[in-house]
Task: structure prediction
Amino acid sequence: MLFSKMAAEGGGKEMNEIKTQFTTREGLYKLLSHSEYSRPNRVPFNSQGSNPVRVSFVNVNDQSGNGDRLCFNVGRELYFYIYKGVRKSN
Result:
């Protein structure tokens, strides 16, 4: 009930909408292309030390059946990957 109330207060937008950019108290998060976030010459935003990594496992009601996501929050950057289960290596 609370979730649907929050969605209704959000200006009538679709409740399952995936945002490409949002702001939190930690800073701005935005969706980057694969080539942009995998560049080897990226400069870290904080050179004082390593940032803690937070890992989340979430399920999005995806119609394709691949709703499980593995999310990594490293400093101000958010990475998410489709999770298809555990497989043995050959």
